[in-house]
Every structure is written in structure tokens, then in C-alpha cells.
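Training component of the fellowship. As part of building independent skills, the fellow (R.M.) carried out the full modelling exercise for a liganded target. The chosen ligand was zinc ion. The inputs are recorded below so that the supervisory panel can assess the work.
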Amino acid sequence: MDENESRKERKRIRQREYAAANRKKTRQATREWRAKNAEAIKAYRKAYYSAHRAEIVEKARENYQSDPELYRSRNRKWYASHREAANQSSKDRQKKNLPAVRQRQANYREKNKGILREANREWRKANPDKMRACKRSWNSRNRDRIRETARAYAIVNAEEIKKRAQVWRKENPEAKRAHDHKRRARKRAADGSYTAADIKKIFDMQKGKCAYCRTSIRDGYHIDHIQPLSQGGSNWPKNLQLTCQPCNQKKHAADPLAFAQRTGRLL
Ligand SMILES: [Zn+2]
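Fellow's submitted model of the complex:
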């Protein structure tokens, strides 16, 4: 060993001895140096990572494969102690990427419109039971919405519906007769009855106003079955209400529609 080498060796030994004797001090110094140069260290690590990304990823994969259970348990441990932050960052990432994801999905749908429509049709044809169940479930969840839509449709299209119903009745006189007959039979068969005094009482209870729109009905009113006779409603006073002429007409505008629907002419 020449003079130079042995001097270097002696210096290394001295350093090691110093570090061993002053472990706390040197660690503290290292920590301080790191804190002071945190940004530089971060930048260095980042640069190193992007320059060696493929190797690092490959090495990590190898490590994982060599003992998956070890890495899985480490991941679990890390997740357990960083749950909040991990969830939040995953949420943030999703939120950040959502518009892009939605856009990609929309692009895909737009680009494959024909194929998707065809596939959809095929699926529906292959799964009629599922389709029926789906429709039934939607209908039962949206009863009010369906009723509202039908009512709005009936009001908006009252004239046209009336005309269509008239035409249909003219073209199908025996069906119309059967319908009227059924209605009369229903009325006769319906449970309950009311007197003029009952109507007077209802009139007073409604303070002389239409049950629907609250305009005055002192000049005339219609007696309306709250639950229609066709749906099992009774003739008892508690199933009756008084309405103005326009509201009565609006309500009956829905009847030709329902009638036409029952006979399979609409929708
Ligand atoms: Zn009214």
C-alpha cells in the first residue's frame, strides 16, 4: 500500500469512527441538510425518475413478483394509515378526469352510434323478459310522472283528442255504444248514493269554489267522482267534489284519451 492510499484509508476510518461516536449529531446534520435542500432533492429525484422510469417500473414489478404477499401487506398497511388522504386523492383524480372521461365516452358513443343502436336492438330482442321487467319497474317508480305527462298531454291536445275521439266514435258506433253501456252499468253498480242535501254540504265545505282551481262555482258546477267509477270509485258523498265548467272539461278531455288508449288506438 503506497503512502497516498494509506492516508485515504486512515481518513475513511477516522470519519467512520467520528460518525459512530457522534451518530446523533451526524443524523441531525443530515436531516438539517435535507430540510434546507428539500426542493433541490425533490427536483433531483423527479429528474432521476423520469430519466430511469422504465427501469424503475420494471424493478418494482420484479420486486412485487418475487413476493407479492409482502408488497400487498405493505400496501394494506400504508393504506390503513393514509386512508383519508388516499380516498381524497382518488376522489380528486376522478373529479379532475371526469370531464375528459365523459367526453371520451360521448365521442365513443357518437362514433359507434350505428353499432350501439344495433347492439341495443339485438339485446332487447334477446331479452324480452328483462325489457318487460325493466319497463314495469320504471313505470311503478314513475307513476306520478306518467300521470302528469298524460294530463299535460290531454290538456295541451284537448281539441285534437276530442276530434279524434269524435271521428273514432263515428267510425266505431258499436264500440261507442258498448262503452256507454259499460259506463251506465258501472254507475248503476257503483256502491253508494247521494242526495241534494249532500251536494249542498259539499258546496259549503268547498266555500262555493271549484275543487281544482278555486274559482267561484256559484253560477254552476259539475259533480265529479274523485276516484272515477271506472276505477272502483263509489257514489258516496265522500267520493264527490264540485268543479267549475272548464276544469270539468279538462278532466273529461283526459277521458277520450284514456278511452282511446284502452281501445289501443293511441301510443
Ligand atoms: Zn275550476
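The panel noted the following from the submitted structure. The longest strand covers residues 222-225. The pocket of zinc ion is lined by residues 210, 212-213, 215, 243-244, 246-247 (CB under 6 Å).
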